[in-house]
Amino acid sequence: MAMRASVNKISPSRLMEGTRMFAPRYFSDKSGRVLGDEELAAENIWIKKMEREKLEKMKQKLDKEIAEAEKKAAADKKPESSK
């Protein structure tokens, strides 16, 4: 019961604000109207776009880390080969 009371005080858009990356919005406005087909499709496209951007950022970060590791490994090999 306490959970319902707090949910009623917060608008659905405010509740979903931080979770859009993980779950679709089920309500498009404060009246509680369920999303229409076009709105749902647009929401799904937006979610996929955000996920794609997040994956691209993670890939760039990983590529950078790999390049740094290779550079460090190459620097470590140089002193050994000169002996």
Tally the helices: what do you get? Answer: 3
Question: What structural category do the secondary elements indicate?
Answer: mainly alpha
Strand content: under 5%
Largest sheet: none
CA-CA gap between termini? 75 Å
Q: Which stretches of 5+ consecutive residues score pLDDT under 50?
A: none
Radius of gyration: 24 Å
The best one-word shape is rod-shaped
Written description of the protein model:
The chain is mostly helical and 83 residues long. The chain has a domain at 36-76. Helices cover 70% and strands 0% of the residues. It has helices spanning 2-9, 12-16, 37-81. The radius of gyration is 24 Å and the shape is rod-shaped. It starts with a helix and ends with a helix. The relative contact order is 0.08.
